[in-house]
Amino acid sequence: MLKLTFKRSLVAAFAWAAAGTVAAAQPPADLGRRLVEGYIAPATARLEASARGLGQTLQTWCAKPDAAGAQQVRGQFAELVQAWSGVEFLRFGPLVQDNRFERIFFWPDPRGIVLRQVQGLLAGQAAADARELAGRSVAVQGLPALEYVLYGDDGLLARPGGPGFASACAYAVAVTRNVARVGGELARAWAPGGDYARHFERPAADDPLYRTTQEVAAEAVKALSTGLQFGRDVKLLPVMGKGPDSSQPKRAPFWRSGLTLPAMQAWADGLLGFYRAGGYDFGEDAWIAANVAGELARLRDVFGALSGPVESVLSDGDGYRRLQLAVLLQKNAKDLVDQHMAPALGVTIGFNALDGD
Amino acid sequence: MRSMEIDRRTFLGLVGAGLLAHWPARGADVVPADAHEPLYLAARLRDGRYEAALVDIGGADRLVVPMPGRGHSFAIDKARKRAVVFGRQPGFFAVAFSLDGAQSPQALPAAPGRHFFGHGVYTPDGALLIATENDFESGRGVLGVYDASAGGGYRRVAEYDSGGIGPHEVVLLRDGRTLCVANGGILTHPDYGKLELNLDTMQPSLAYIDVRTGELLEHVQLPPALHRLSIRHMTLDAAGTVWFGCQYTGPAGDMPALVGRHRRGREPELFAGPQDVLRGMRNYVGSVAADAFGAVIATSSPVGGQVAYWDAASGRCLGTTAMFDGCGVAPHPRGGFLINSGRGELGVAGPGMPLQPVLPASAQLAWDNHFRKV
Fold it and tell me: Which of A145, B54, B170, B329 could form a disulfide with B289 if both were Cys (CB 3.0 to 4.6 A apart)?
């Protein structure tokens, strides 16, 4: 199924590359600044803040694992996952430096590396501090590892104060602090005028990263397009299988914590926020803006209307159909971005350039 | 535009029913070529259909082989007038065909638990076909070894370890016995397409392997700081030395050198070229070829829309040619290169030689990454 997906997108991209004569609107001259101030800087700051918040709560709870504290841990973990979902698709610049994406979110993990390594770590000397953790495998440093330690069958939330609780809890604190540290690096790089943001905000002929506003627009278009493709082909389709009976909920991100759908909702909302922050003006083709925003908002609402763990949504006929609708909405949104938004901004990506090999 | 897609199951069904062999070669009127006429192979998308094409130096079709999906590159056995086109990764098909159209194409489905990465070679005696493949459940790069002898039917007879993850292009050195494999270092699983699953631990390498035994003869790595520099494509210069082109998966602003040369027993050398040329490559090399004399190496970047030329003796950059989405490069018999693009163009260019168009851009035609001289 995935193969077909990629192929279709290539055919579409081909048509788009060939349509090189579309009259191009100019992206807003201050596009980079709009995206940084309107979306990227606040989203990365939220990631850092929510990781710090969870770290503090966890530390208190580790010393006194009561029910009220557990509730707070759950709530703040959910907030952290949603904050990350709003950053995850910004997979360029700071997020691809120093393996930051993988440090926070080592996923997908078809070979179960996170589980294996976290179990190994817990069996040995688990009480790593955040600095020490940063020198270990990225698989034990981020949210999938933290989710497993908190929400696994024998996890901290299931057996507060049980055997090995103290060292596993210390490890969870270390992971959270590590995510806060990486989140802080992202937030600093993306703060207005930050190390990366200033290139993105002020493209110039002699800038090593962005020479023109068009290149900034190309980066934004690519983030939207590949984000939507990732959401559909990597997050949803492998989980859905050929039907409810062959669906594979355990391949979904954050299935253990029951946060798959809130994460998808936050992700779609993030794409929408990122898109809106650009303030694109398509002139006569204003329908493009309305349609891209409309599809992304519908996508967010489809996820928002689904509640409960992903297993039950997949096994419920109506839930499954709504996820099929989400797949379709993502395809539509991606086609709009690739075939209409991109050329309207003067961004073209070729048949070979689009799908590197 | 719609594609006549044949999915994997249908393809395997056709193979099972023996129907693929009856696929008509579109434009099957094969024009007899004299043995010295230069001919080229490329995978392409034309009118929404994926196919492999044998074309002459003017870009005219001599043979067209339909494919069930997007193709990539070829193993070519000129002496026996045959070739194999491999599916683009994760490719679950390859098709063997005769260059004169004398025999029906033969489907070579990927072995269970394996997919093709898109490249392969024949041994000079025509006895074996070697293909780069992914053992995707164990995350291991392998070389599939196929019986290419007369009557061998391309049976898969052995499998060698490729010496790394994600083997992409494989070439055979002039001794006819030593393979050189570019292990790109990127772990993928077909459930997730081409998504990189190990960016943190990538270890790309060049592996020299004995084609008869699978023995790893030499294993070459770039410095650890360049562990995200995926070595992908290769060619040989006049001296038989390996030249390689890389794709950088790290931050775009890093811009490491992407073109290198490796002499056996030495450290690999990387050539950055002038800053504007390096920048114009956009961290990506899609294809590498030597000119007819093995003196000039061409590296293409469809991402940057730029082909760069390198002096094989010194590693000096000799200039560039701009072509939007230009990727396929192949030697022109009189020097310089034929270059094609994802929007159907074909032209001739080289160092100090402005681009001379052969075929114009066309909305109905996209050439894939590689253009191979037969």
Answer: B329
